[in-house]
Design a protein that fits this description.
Number of domains: 3
Largest sheet: 5 strands, mixed
Helix content: 40-55%
Strand content: 15-25%
CATH architecture of the largest domain: 2-Layer Sandwich
CATH superfamily of the largest domain: Histidine kinase-like ATPase, C-terminal domain
Order of helices and strands: HHEEHEEHHEHEEHEEHEE
Distance between the termini: 37 Å
Strand order of the largest sheet: 6-8-9-11-10
Shape: rod-shaped
CATH class of the largest domain: Alpha Beta
Structural class: alpha+beta
CATH topology of the largest domain: Heat Shock Protein 90
Radius of gyration: 41 Å
């Protein structure tokens, strides 16, 4: 069976990586732009504070005249700030302490606090250069050291954390999807091998039986002719099975054909063999025989066989019914297949078409998956569960494109 999709899968992965990288870069750029804007705002606040201190230093007005300005500026400060003299020694202008938003242990001694603030000044100087407070003649009398607010710090690291979490999510998701894909591929290969054995088993077993009968009746010419006809029938079926598998993985040829005739041929084949199953099941076919669809008869027979087998497995009573209805709806041909079996649970209606899913103890869960691929991928039609209720039965619907050539 031809397996495809490798290059396409790689292209999809590459596209996802490119898109993910673009999102990461965009997020990083946008966040850093916000950080820069906030830093500029905080710098302007510090400058305003410095200008106020210069005003105090350069006028004879009492401090009470500008108390209101200092209080409003200081109240807006939510980032670390230390006021020093020109020799980087902490002064006591800010709320009487000389610093703001500098957390420290409350039980520090004077020397310990002085050293702590000195170290903090060195750290703040690495974040932003200090802003000088000068006299009119340009002499520096004080300095303001400041750092970034908690909001700016968080925003600066936020995109990196976001990228890390996104990468972790992608790794987990990719690993999970890879495991699911590998498991699904394994189910497909196992299912296909079992489906092959199942498809070939019946005619081969039959041929072995006819061979034994030939050995027993080789002198009876009439009997030999009858056996030969049955052997021909099984050989034709083997050839048909070969054609089915050869069409999986490649584009099959679609011609104008009657779905009714195909269903009738498969139904008759099963109807003759139903007594051997120990069930009294009646297969009924109704609809328009003259309707033609664009289809591949060999592959569509496979679909009908899988649906009949599925219905037979679901029927647990002795009086079973499998009904086919073929009718025309606009430019489509709709086929309904209903049974009076045990039905499907509402939460599993979509799972039944998944490779490897089966409610049967010895099932391999490939029949309905193959049917969906044949109908939807090769015939560009649809197949779905129209109705199902526990202990009432199930109805499948197939929609095919009607032939444009009406005779």
């Amino acid at each position: 069976m031809k397996m495809s999709g490798g290059p396409a899968s790689m292209n999809i992965k590459l596209a996802l990586i490119v898109i993910g990288a673009a999102i990461a870069v965009g997020t990083l750029y946008y966040t850093q732009d916000i950080v820069i804007r906030l830093q500029e705002r905080e710098k302007e606040i510090v400058k305003l504070y410095a200008s106020s201190l210069e005003y105090v230093a350069n006028t004879d007005s009492p401090n009470s005249d500008i108390t209101f300005i200092f209080q409003n500026i200081i109240q807006r400060i939510d980032f670390p700030l230390i006021l020093t003299d020109k020799n980087d020694q902490v002064t006591s202008t800010i709320s009487g302490s000389g610093y703001k938003n500098i957390p420290h242990k409350p039980d520090l001694s004077g020397d310990e606090l002085k050293k702590f603030l000195s170290d903090k000044i060195k750290l703040l100087s690495t974040e932003h250069p200090p802003i000088d407070i000068k006299l009119p003649n340009g002499t520096v009398i004080q300095k303001i050291y400041y750092g970034d607010s908690e909001l700016v710090t968080r925003l600066r690291y936020y995109p990196y954390l976001q990228i890390i979490f996104a990468l972790l999510f992608l790794i987990i998701a990719y690993s999970s999807f890879s495991y699911i894909k590998k498991s699904e591929h394994s189910n497909i290969w196992v299912g296909m091998s079992k489906e092959t054995a199942h498809q070939l088993g019946t005619p081969i077993s039959s041929l072995l039986g006819w061979n034994e009968m030939l050995k027993m009746n080789y002198t009876n010419q009439d009997k030999v002719l009858d056996i030969s006809a049955e052997i021909d029938s099984d050989l034709i079926r083997l050839n048909k099975i070969t054609k089915r598998f050869s069409k999986i993985g490649s584009k099959p040829e679609l011609i104008d054909h009657s779905p009714y005739e195909t269903i009738e041929r498969v139904s008759n084949y099963f109807q003759r063999r139903l007594p051997q199953l120990g069930k009294n099941v009646k297969i009924d076919l109704k609809g328009n025989k003259d309707l033609k669809a664009r289809m591949n008869s060999e592959l569509f027979e496979w679909v009908v066989e899988n649906l009949i087998k599925n219905a037979l497995d679901a029927i647990e009573t002795q009086n079973g019914k499998i009904n086919f209805l073929v009718e025309e709806k606009s430019d489509k041909i709709e086929i309904e297949i209903s049974d009076n079996g045990k039905g499907i649970e509402s939460g599993r209606k979509k799972d039944i078409f998944r490779p490897g899913y089966s409610t049967k103890r010895r099932g391999w869960g490939l029949g309905l998956s193959l049917s969906k691929r044949i109908v939807e991928d090769y015939h560009e039609g649809k197949i779905f569960v129209k109705f199902s209720a526990l202990n009432e039965g199930t109805t499948f619907k197939i929609i095919l494109n009607k032939s444009e050539n009406i005779t």
